[in-house]
């Protein structure tokens, strides 16, 4: 076992741990990619949902952000973010809540249906830029890219609203998450760019000259060489990355910046298994196929006084129920385990895992609050009790 930070002695239940040095490197790397390509960097904050981490982005020169809900927009607006895109087809039942943000920030909206635009035109109390959501292959939301007359009609409807202005076209190539590796991710991204540019060309041919293209998926934004025709990128997951991104080739192990620390509650040498307090309510149920074909919900990672260490694919989280996590490990690892020890696991999908907790614990020993945290907006020191034992890989 590596030397374990003393503040981990205070961990009693599952805690999401972050490595702030890795996060800063991830932010810097993506910001550099955007700057080199000459595109605007509008990161999606739905992954971390933390005003403290948001400040790390601001230090890197970010001024505009993306969120996925009105409540998230309010949280970041109250933390001095004034240029916010709400990248979810607007929920018309939240018009009153949207209007309450008047004067706090410029909130740019998203629509893919005439009824949504009609509700906005009738209900907003200040001006908003509105993007039209385009489906370039993910088939979740958006007008299919080849239904260009429908897209033009929605743009015309937006332009006819006295408090609405057409901002451009926006897409999320979420199907890149189902790719087999970086070359396939690049292919999906290239296809997305071709389709988005064809939509913009059509709109320009119909006298819609001001039309930005906004794209955003972490796999594509992490690996492609060209953002031709793109005005802005909106990746979010890259701040932490995870096992899914690692499997896609979007990051290496040094990019993994979030893990869930779990207490050991059961040791079963006869079947080479350990049970931890850490189940679906802590990891969600996103999974991958492991090197031996088994289901994997997380791989163990070392946490040392210097930060995150190497990933250990031989120690894997293979079964989740609500609170239980079953871990497979080699016999020599299991022999070292004691009830009450701690194991840390990098999850398959960090966005979902982060959303299950109220705050993070940094490897520095500070707690980092997030949107649904009961603590204040600034980081606080995590104070350990005396005479407690903990270990980590």
CATH C-level category of the largest domain: Alpha Beta
Total domains, how many?
A: 2
Q: What is the H level of CATH, i.e. the homologous superfamily of the largest domain?
A: Alanine racemase
Low-confidence parts, pLDDT < 50 over ≥5 residues? 382-393
Helix content: 25-40%
How large is the share of residues in beta strands?
Answer: 25-35%
Number of strands: 21
How can the largest sheet be summarized? 9 strands, parallel
CA gyration radius, whole angstroms? 22 Å
Instruction: Kindly identify the CATH topology of the largest domain.
Output: TIM Barrel
* Morphology call: elongated
Distance between the termini: 6 Å
The residue-averaged pLDDT reads 93
Structure, briefly:
The protein contains 12 helices and 21 strands.
Question: Secondary-structure blueprint of this entry?
Answer:
Blueprint: E1 15-18, H1 20-37, E2 40-41, H2 51-59, E3 65-67, H3 70-77, E4 83-86, H4 95-99, E5 106-111, H5 114-123, E6 128-135, E7 143-144, H6 148-160, E8 164-171, H7 182-204, E9 212-215, H8 218-223, E10 232-233, H9 243-248, E11 258-268, E12 273-277, H10 280-283, E13 288-289, E14 295-296, E15 298-304, E16 307-320, E17 324-328, H11 331-336, E18 342-347, H12 350-354, E19 359-362, E20 366-369, E21 380-381
Parallel strand pairs: 1-19, 2-10, 3-4, 4-5, 5-6, 6-7, 6-8, 8-9, 9-10
Antiparallel strand pairs: 1-11, 11-12, 11-18, 12-17, 13-14, 15-16, 15-18, 16-17, 19-20, 20-21
């Amino acid at each position: 076992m590596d030397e374990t930070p003393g503040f981990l002695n205070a961990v009693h239940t599952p805690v999401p741990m972050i490595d702030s040095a890795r996060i800063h490197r991830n932010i810097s790397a993506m910001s550099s990619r955007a700057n080199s390509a000459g595109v605007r960097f509008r990161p999606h904050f739905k992954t971390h949902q933390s005003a403290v981490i948001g400040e790390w982005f601001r230090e890197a020169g970010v001024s505009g952000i993306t969120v996925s809900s009105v409540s998230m927009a309010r949280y970041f607006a109250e933390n001095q973010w004034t240029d916010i895109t709400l990248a979810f087809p607007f929920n018309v039942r939240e018009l009153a809540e949207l209007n309450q943000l008047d004067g706090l920030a410029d909130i740019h909206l998203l629509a893919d249906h005439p009824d949504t635009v009609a509700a906005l035109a009738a209900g907003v109390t200040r001006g908003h830029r509105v993007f039209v959501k385009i489906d370039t292959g993910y088939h979740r939301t958006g007008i299919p890219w080849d239904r260009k007359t429908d897209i033009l009609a929605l743009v015309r409807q937006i332009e006819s609203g006295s408090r609405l202005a057409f901002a451009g076209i926006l897409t999320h190539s979420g199907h890149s998450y189902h790719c087999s590796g970086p070359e396939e991710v690049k292919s999906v991204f290239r296809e997305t760019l071709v389709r988005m540019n064809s939509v913009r060309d059509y709109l320009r041919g119909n006298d819609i000259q001001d039309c930005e293209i906004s794209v955003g998926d972490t796999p594509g934004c992490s690996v492609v060489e060209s953002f031709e025709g793109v005005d802005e990128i909106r990746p979010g997951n890259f701040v932490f990355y995870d096992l899914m991104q690692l499997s896609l080739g979007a990051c290496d192990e040094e990019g993994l910046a979030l893990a869930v620390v779990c207490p050991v509650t059961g040791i079963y040498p006869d079947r080479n298994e350990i049970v931890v307090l850490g189940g679906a309510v802590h990891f969600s149920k996103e999974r991958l196929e492991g090197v031996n074909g088994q289901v994997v919900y997380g791989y163990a990672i070392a946490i040392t006084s210097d930060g995150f260490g190497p990933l250990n694919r031989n120690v894997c989280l293979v079964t989740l129920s609500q609170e239980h996590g079953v871990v497979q490990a080699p016999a020599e690892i299991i022999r070292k385990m004691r009830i009450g020890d701690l194991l840390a696991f990098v999850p398959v999908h960090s966005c979902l895992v982060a959303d299950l907790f109220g705050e993070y614990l940094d490897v520095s020993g500070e707690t980092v609050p997030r949107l649904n945290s009961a603590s204040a907006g600034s980081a606080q020191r995590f104070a350990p009790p005396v005479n407690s034992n903990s270990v980590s890989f």
